[in-house]
Fold:
Amino acid sequence: METKGKVDVLLGLQWGDEGKGKVVDVLTPNYDVVARFQGGPNAGHTLEFEGQKYVLRSIPSGIFQGGKINIIGNGVVLAPDLFMAEAQDLEKSGHPLTERLYISRKAHLIMPTHRLLDRAYEAAKGKAKVGTTGKGIGPTYTDKISRNGLRVGDILENFKEKYEVHKQRHLDMLKALGWTDFEGLEAAEAKWMEGVAYMRLFRFVDSEHEINDVLRSGKSILCEGAQGTMLDVDFGSYPFVTSSNTVCAGACTGLGIGPNKIGNVYGIMKAYCTRVGSGPFPTELFDETGKTLRDLGHEYGAVTGRERRCGWIDLVQLRYSVMVNGVTQLIMMKSDVLDSFETIKACVAYRLPNGEETTKLPYEIDNVTPVYKEFKGWKTDMTGFTSEEQFPEAFCAYVKFLEEFLETPIKVISIGPDRAQTIVRK
Ligand code: GDP
Ligand code: IMO
Ligand code: MG
Structure:
């Protein structure tokens, strides 16, 4: 596939945790630059290779392959203390970053008081809470959109004064919300300021100039999305979403690139489906099968350790995600988790409360009943396979059906968490 002079975008098609980090790492050798375009430390991307396991949150997943330049774009929200901890861990494990990780001056900073606001808003919602990661994502993006944000570029001038103004505003808001728990705030602020000083070791850039210069010189860029399409603030299962545009258009606004520069759009999906936090999930399984998926897939959140809710693959939802992102090729993850199943189901339509069936994702998805098609399980351990020729017939039939239903080719199939357990199809 031609990647020069273009920006390829890789993003999640479900509710996050599809395995984006693994695929970015696998694809990085084909690119000159890897850039994150939205989200923040709410993301948790686990990568495994050479017997080691790494979890990335704010740092792009292209940092392990051959000294490539990685960029944190303007669309990202960054918590200096968490960024420092993540970067220092990587440095300790032999992956120095300061020379090859650039940070956009326009990225917004998550303050300790944003995290308190996140908790306060969740508490105020009571039963209707979103089940956020508690990282201050919503309040930080809210400040950005309401033109009250603090940006990376602010670090360089009169920072303490600016910080105090924003902190005071947050404290007033917390007071109005009736929030009284400020335990640990001072210690968190001290760590945070240490993180701010640490960030100055990195090169601050304008990602829009950086990226377009790279493109003009004929080089290639892979844009890494966080979360997933169903968590997009516009197209996801609102209000149970994150606060950024996780869809392909987010790469344009989150890095500063024109839509005509977008090349391939890689849509990442699991062979089944998961979700963390609250909100509708039509194919969720509450039975033994759901538990089996969770056990076999190790479906526990990397950021919060929460159990992920598990269910069958939802092709109505995926068809919608393919559409809004303009996905050009699909990448299917965790097919190995289904290796031992007798039968496998895929949701091919929703039955609406009025009895009608639809394959178009409706406005509300909390009152639909999934209509399933059943497939024979392949009952083969595929985790050691090295080429698609080895795939059993029943698995090929499942893949073919998905490709036809989603009208998009599945180019890569992941058969285990390790970098090496990846089959690129011809
Ligand atoms: P991301 O947030 O989209 O990067 O995904 P996460 O890292 O949060 O979740 C995916 C999890 O599945 C991680 O623990 C990966 O190591 C793991 N994983 C990725 N691909 C595969 C696969 O093909 N098979 C299995 N069994 N695990 C995988
Ligand atoms: P990656 O990049 C899965 C979910 C949270 C919550 C909602 C809002 O690893 O795929 P937020 O803290 O963003 O305000 O929470 O979004 N969520 C994720 N779920 N994977 C993620 O990231 C997520 N990031 C946020 O659980 O329901
Ligand atoms: Mg994740």
Notes: Residues 12, 15-17, 39, 42-45, 130-133, 135, 137-138, 226-228, 231, 240, 242-243, 276-277 surround 6-O-phosphoryl inosine monophosphate (ligand 2) (CB under 6 Å). The first helix runs from residue 20 to 27. The first strand starts at residue 7 and ends at 12.
